[in-house]
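Standup notes
- DV: blocked on the single-chain target, sequence here:
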Amino acid sequence: MSRKTNYISILQFDERGISRLRAHRSSKGVEVVAFDQERGEWSGRDGALEAALQAFAAKYRLADDQVYSVLPRYDMTARILVLPSQDASEIAGMIRLSAEEYVPFPAEELITDQCILGKTNDGGSRVLVVFAHRDVVDAHIKLLQAAKLDPEQVYLSTACLASAALAARGEAPGRCAVINLASGGLEVLVLKEGTLAYGRAVSSQQDWLLREGGEQEVFEELGVEVRASLSAYRREAEEGEDVESVYLCSEWTGVESHCEALSGEIGQECGPAPFVEELVAYGSEHLSSIPLVSLGAALLAQERGAVCVQLLPEALKKSRRRAGTKRQFILVGVLLALVLLALGGVYWHEVQVRQAYIKDLTKRASTMAPRARGIISKQRQLTILQNQVERTGNAIEMLADLCELFPRSDMNLTRFSFTHREKIEIWGRARSLQVIEKLSQDLSAAGKSTIPYFVRAQQVYEQKIVERNEEVMDFKISIPFPGAETQVSDAEILDGDPVNE
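- DV (later): unblocked, structure below
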């Protein structure tokens, strides 16, 4: 589905005319962009109306807008009822159960909707109830779909007319009648103290245009129907009250002459509905008549109407919800695919960068390998030379340091073994075990402070022996050197790679 514009098109059509009010969504009033009409004689039976609607929709590009259509009140049954509840769901249930009391059709053949007009003091509600035969609504939807139009909603003309008049009048006191001269019929509403009090609609063959020689017939029929409607209102009113003012409006014709003639017919002042200036924020110059029904539908489309009755079939609503859910799943799937594709692209790029970096490092390593091997060989040679010329840590120094720590008496050194950079081993005789332990402790202490080579000094064994008829202790102390390194043989030096310079 193509993306809709931010414009609203209110569409009304029958076998005599097609009307479109185009408005821009706004938070104030109705912003009229265009008001287009075409009249003709199109039969719905031979497909002429369908073809005319298709041509009209193509000419004005209605499919680009958000389309709302209006069904006339005279094609269905509407009642204002007082029901003993103020809960919307309970009211809807009451209406479904009692539908067959008001229309001669089974409930499954009806499309019903309702709007709470007000609440009574005893806990009830005044409700506008509409019973539309499913065939009427389905035929209307089928014509729209044939013109490639998918209506956002289908409104009732009564709700549109009342919403426009109430929006213009506000909470104005008193009672007024608003009469709409529609194509194919006539509708009369009575507003009282800011609410819809009464409504009546009749179908008619009149198109309400004043042609030479036919004016009297139009005025007489208008007078008869208006008088009948006002009389019915007086009968239903609690105190038999009459309306205080009468206003005319129409999508299709100017109403000045009709007002003048109607004033004589009903004996009461009648004038054109003065509501357009209150409803239209700008664009009133596009209006060639007083299209209160279209203006009220534009308010309802923007959720600013006081009386809302919607006739879009439930099956179509469910189909749209399923289509909307499907579109959402598709959108989410496409989004996930794009995310995965983007992540795959990033991963592929990172892999390529890493491979290029590894290749560069490998190339540099292969270039530097001979030099590195030469450097390692030189390091080994230098280590051997250092060991050969190193003066510190030799046997003489070790023996001197050891003698410094040896006790002056009670102990003899019998053997001294020195392994370069590995260990020292000493054997001796002592008069007591305490003398041996003290020497071991002195060696460890010296290793921690002044002679690091002695830090790991440890007693290997002690045993008593008899020497010259005297009992003495034979002992051995081992001193491993810390961090002893593996010696490099001269053969390794001779076999090492030369340094590449």
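- Follow-up: The chain has twelve helices and 18 strands.
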